[in-house]
Design brief:
Blueprint: H1 2-20, H2 22-37, H3 58-70, E1 75-81, H4 88-104, E2 108-112, E3 118-122, E4 127-131, H5 144-152, E5 167-174, H6 212-227, E6 235-239, H7 241-275, H8 278-301, H9 312-339, H10 342-369, H11 377-407, H12 415-421, H13 423-438, H14 440-458, H15 476-487, E7 492-499, H16 509-523, E8 534-536, H17 538-548, H18 563-574, E9 591-598, H19 605-620, E10 626-630, H20 632-666, H21 669-674, H22 677-692, H23 701-730, H24 733-760, H25 768-800
Antiparallel strand pairs: 1-5, 1-6, 2-5, 3-4, 7-9, 7-10, 8-9
Helix pairs in contact: 1-10, 1-11, 2-11, 4-6, 6-7, 7-8, 7-9, 7-24, 8-9, 8-11, 9-10, 9-11, 9-24, 10-11, 10-20, 10-23, 13-24, 13-25, 14-22, 14-25, 16-19, 17-18, 19-20, 20-23, 22-23, 22-25, 23-24, 23-25, 24-25
Membrane topology: Multi-pass membrane protein
Subcellular location: Cell membrane
GO cellular component, one term: plasma membrane
């Protein structure tokens, strides 16, 4: 106990030091915050799927290699519903939309639709590869030849038009690389000077992939263009992985701005009602504003992007830092009404609560820091910067707030006024102390039963990662994706790379036959959950070419079985003017790409599919080629697997660190371990809520466990810190509980209200994932409050027996 007394005295001395040098302290902090704040404009945002993986992750490396070779697989898909996609008037409007998209969209490489669908055929002299509608005919009757060519091309059905010909699509391919360099400057392509005496060799700068901001611009511009064409017989549905990523960012930005605004309003109301002072509202908000500014600036300095995961951080810090400020101010204002002396009251408040505030900040930071070991980059970033933010907030609460108090003119309330303000809360806390110490066995028995029930429910939790259902049912992106999955057999793609390991390995008929076997197998996959709607590969181009060079006869829609003939036909196709072959093979004809069209479903549903495909293709190409599954959909599946594993590790680390801190604070291993039981309750009860209301463990809700533990233990730390002091002083558990609740119990109640309100603003989020996160975290805080007010005193009552020795 001596070390705690010594520490409290040091906090009192530190308070006097800050009080004496308050103006210098404020100036130094203002300069520090201003210096960090200059970096805020450099903060970037990233909602990309690959951004969830560290750049050194093997799956991320493989995906980057895929993009470097074949281009970006994330596309925008414009689906259009009409009565007949081959109607001349419809095609004219489709052509106009197609051309507008080509002309007006930035950062794109290609726009494909029925208008420019590949039409491969042969005449007596050559191979011809041209657009399906080079020029739209003048009459409906003249469309029939092109229509029949389209219907006879097996590639186009469920790719560019639906089976019933009432839906068609425009597929927009985006750039692989950004148009801007690392400093944000537009990259200007240097043209070669053919008259120069000597070529100028300039080392190429490292290319950056298409940025999140550029993707958002494409999506927003596409939304604006297609809106102008929307009509009764021209219903437009905009989807695709690029669109969903862009829409998530739009919702995230809107939600984050809304969260902060609503949270500030709610916290101002709570603080005003609690303290009835301007200083009681302004001081916590100043501390919070500086904390968030410095934390986000640190992210900008380290080039760490703001993500779907880290968007919860400002709201979290706002609630947590305000809670810490409340503990200090509550004690300060109460003592000020007695002493009428700011310096003495600040000294008392720092000595009384300084150590507890440090310990609660450390436990909260520990719970968050456990995420820093995550295999997912944004989750690891949350662990690093949210925990850093909590510690930065601790600095402002224990340095800036005392300095501001010393510099402000704060009018003290009289003791009578203070007593009147707390009469109702005191009555409630007094009743709680009587119940918790009067019926300890009943409370523990009921709590034990509830824990058993919660464990049973916890075993029924389900995992899920389905970003589409985060949107409301009538959200445009969700509706579009569901319609396209149904009518056009898939809105996203999986990618497969077959590497023969040798130059011109794809000229081998046996290898191409294996690729054909692989696509036949893939196209046969149909389950109640997922299906393959279409595959695209080199063999499709080759079969088209072979048919065209054999008088367009259907029986020649096959793979030639002669290596030289294959090489010759592919050479002819390359020289026909089409660059489509680049989408499916590398320059040395050693690697082939298979694109698999599939529906947008829960990423975890694809785990079995991906494993099944990998095993089947490994067997098919055993000894002759390697098979790599990649693409955004594959990454999503991998991300969820890593998320589940990382969350389990985070929980273990968080629980271990917090337990160690509790033991150190209390000074007794047995009591320290037992005091952790109330802190497990919130996590267990959350699992019950999730099962009852069918909330899955997704990317957000999996974060709650460690966060809830870090927050829940804060109240326990404050309670045990003050209980320890009073129990040793009076050798009476009942009195110690009563004095603890009547003193720090007020601050615990208010901070719990502030924290709960802080997270309940997420109920106004547009995405259900954030709604669930908010209500579950707020519930965890409320359950933790009840556990600390009832279960902790009951445990202390049965264990200590007024011996005055823990």
């Amino acid at each position: 106990m001596n070390w705690r007394h010594r520490t409290e005295r040091k906090f009192e001395s530190f308070s006097d030091l800050i009080f004496t040098h308050s103006k210098k302290t404020i100036l130094a902090i203002l300069l520090l915050v201003a210096a960090f704040g200059t970096q805020l404009p450099n903060l970037t945002m990233d909602t990309s799927t690959e951004g969830f993986l560290h750049k050194t992750d093997s799956m991320r490396v493989a995906y980057d290699e895929f993009r470097d070779q074949f281009g970006r697989d994330e596309k925008l898909l414009v689906a259009i519903k009409t009565e007949n996609v081959f109607d001349l008037n419809f095609l004219k409007k489709l052509e106009k939309l197609h051309k507008n998209l080509e002309a007006e969209l930035p950062y794109i490489t290609d726009v494909n639709s029925l208008i420019n669908a590949r039409n491969t055929y042969g005449d007596e002299e050559s191979l011809i590869v041209e657009d399906l509608f080079e020029v739209l005919p003048d009459s409906q009757q003249q469309i029939e030849p092109q229509k029949q060519r389209a219907l006879n091309n097996p590639l186009l059905e469920n790719l560019l038009f639906s089976e019933d010909q009432t839906f068609t699509t425009i597929v927009i391919d985006t750039q692989t690389y950004s148009s801007f360099d690392a400093e944000g400057k537009l990259i200007v392509e240097q043209e070669e000077d053919e008259f120069a005496d000597e070529p100028i060799n300039i080392a190429p700068a490292a290319k950056l992939y298409l940025s999140d901001a550029e993707n958002t611009v494409i999506v927003q511009k596409t939304q604006a263009i297609v809106k102008e064409f929307e009509a009764d017989n021209f219903e437009i549905y905009l989807t695709g992985s690029a669109v969903i990523a862009g829409t998530l960012k739009q919702s995230m930005m809107a939600d984050t701005k809304s969260f902060i605004t609503k949270m500030i309003v709610m916290i101002v109301i709570v603080l005003a009602l609690l303290f009835k002072r301007v200083s009681g509202v302004l001081l916590p908000l100043i501390s919070v504003a500086f904390t968030i500014s410095v934390t986000l600036s640190m992210m900008a300095i380290t080039s760490t992007p703001f993500t779907i995961v880290t968007q919860i951080m400002p709201s979290f810090l706002l609630a947590v830092i305000t809670g810490g400020a409340i503990h200090l101010l509550a004690i300060f204002y109460k003592d000020l009404s007695k002493t009428q002396d700011r310096k003495a009251s600040l000294r008392y408040a720092m000595g009384h609560s300084g150590l507890a505030i440090v310990m609660t900040s450390l436990t909260t930071a520990a719970g968050l820091w456990s995420f820093s070991f995550s295999e997912l980059s944004p989750v690891a970033d949350l662990g690093v910067f949210a925990s850093s933010g909590v510690l930065i907030g601790l600095l402002f609460n224990l340095v800036l707030l005392p300095a501001l108090i010393a510099s402000m003119s704060i009018k003290p309330h009289t003791a009578k006024e203070d007593a009147q303000e707390h009469t109702q809360m005191d009555k409630m806390l007094l009743s709680i102390s009587r119940i918790s110490t009067g019926y300890p066995k009943a409370i523990i028995a009921i709590s034990g039963l509830m824990i058993v029930v919660a464990i049973v429910f916890a075993s029924q939790l389900r995992f899920s990662h389905y970003p589409l259902v985060w949107f409301p049912e009538d959200h445009a992106s969700r509706v579009a994706t569901e319609v396209v999955d149904d009518k056009l057999k898939g809105s996203i793609t999986l990618e497969i790379v077959i590497d023969t390991g040798k130059e011109n390995g794809l000229y081998d008929p046996a290898m191409l036959n294996k690729i054909q076997n692989a696509t036949d197998y893939l196209n046969s996959i149909q389950t109640g959950t997922y299906f393959v709607g279409k595959t695209l590969s080199l063999v499709d181009v080759l079969k088209e070419t072979n048919r065209a060079l054999n008088e367009n006869q259907a029986e020649f829609y096959s793979i030639p079985q002669d290596k030289d003939l294959i090489a010759q036909e592919l050479f002819l196709f390359e020289n026909s003017g089409s660059d489509d072959l680049e989408d499916f093979v590398d320059a040395s004809f050693s690697k082939a790409r298979i694109t698999v069209k599939a529906p947008y479903i829960d990423a975890l549903e694809y785990n079995g599919f991906i494993m099944q495909v990998q095993q089947q293709l490994d067997q098919e190409f055993k000894g002759v080629a390697t098979v790599q599954l990649t693409g955004i959909t594959t990454l999503l599946s991998v991300i969820m697997e890593k998320s589940i594993h990382s969350s389990a590790v985070s929980y273990v680390i968080a629980f271990g660190l917090v337990t160690i801190m509790m033991v150190l604070l209390i000074g007794n291993i047995k009591i320290g371990l037992i005091s952790m039981i109330p802190n497990i309750l919130p996590i267990l009860f959350l699992s019950t809520i999730m099962v009852v209301f069918d909330m899955p463990l997704d990317m957000f809700t999996m974060l709650i466990g460690a966060i809830a533990l870090g927050l829940a233990v804060d109240d326990t730390v404050h309670f045990m810190h003050n209980f320890r002091r009073y129990e040793l002083e009076h050798n009476d558990v009942d009195k110690a509980v009563r004095l603890t609740l009547m003193g720090t119990g007020r601050a615990i109640t208010v901070t719990s209200i502030v924290l709960s309100v802080g997270f309940l603003v997420l109920l106004f989020a547009s995405m259900s994932s954030m709604f669930n996160f908010g209500i579950l975290t707020a519930s965890a805080i409320f359950i933790a409050l009840l556990a600390d007010f009832f279960l902790v005193p009951a445990i202390m009552k049965l264990m200590i027996h007024n011996k005055g020795d823990l």
